Amino acid sequence: MAVARADDRRKRLCPPAVRAIPGMLAWTQTSPWEQQHGLRRHRLSVALSDDRGQTWKHFRNLESLDDRAYIEPPPLEEATDNEGPFYQPEDRARYPHAPGSMRSAYPAMVIVENRAIVTYDYMLVDPQGDKLAITGKVKVLPLKWIEQARP
Question: How far apart are CA 1 and CA 7, in angstroms?
């Protein structure tokens, strides 16, 4: 079972959004390999905590080129923003949703009744890494949808 610790949040490259309730988190997560290969912010995820943010579970992706909803965070000293171009991945077996968004970041979130409303930046690039569009996106998520993810 994947359970993230509270300290793992500090290792992320984009600031997470924790709003309205202490038990829900939205953040951008990537592996060191993805960072080095131009896939820096393609995965925007949410998770829930039932212990006031000490651990996180029920990971779901709002945006991702693959289906991995939890990435083991690298040691803090390995975290880097690795500025450079974004690239659409060529490995469609590993990234079945490519081509797609290459930057889903800077989430803001509010809880209204039994739904989470999440807004975030969204960028598309072509296969060569050239920017096609940057816009904002809004998703309205039933909290039950998040709770139904594997803990």
Answer: 18
pLDDT by residue (tens digit) across 23-34? Answer: 889 999 888 888
Q: Which domain holds residue 64?
A: 4-147
From the CB of residue 115, how many other CB atoms can be counted at a distance below 10 Å?
Answer: 15
**Residues 30-40: b if buried by 16+ CB within 10 A, e if exposed:** bebebbebbbb
96-115 pLDDT, tens digit per residue, is 998 888 888 899 998 888 89
- Report the C-alpha gap between 14 and 26 in whole angstroms: 10
Give the chain's domain count.
1
In order of 27, 68, 123, 131, the CA distances from 24 in angstroms are: 10, 19, 24, 31
How far apart are the C-alpha atoms of 85 and 120, rounded to whole Å?
A: 20
Q: What is the pTM of this model?
A: 0.77
Residue 60: what are its φ and ψ, rounded to 5°? -140, 150
Cα separation, 32 vs 113, in Å, equals 37
- Taking alpha carbons only, the member of 97, 90, 3 closest to residue 42 is 97
Tell me how far apart the alpha carbons of residues 62 and 117 are, in angstroms, rounded to a whole number: 11
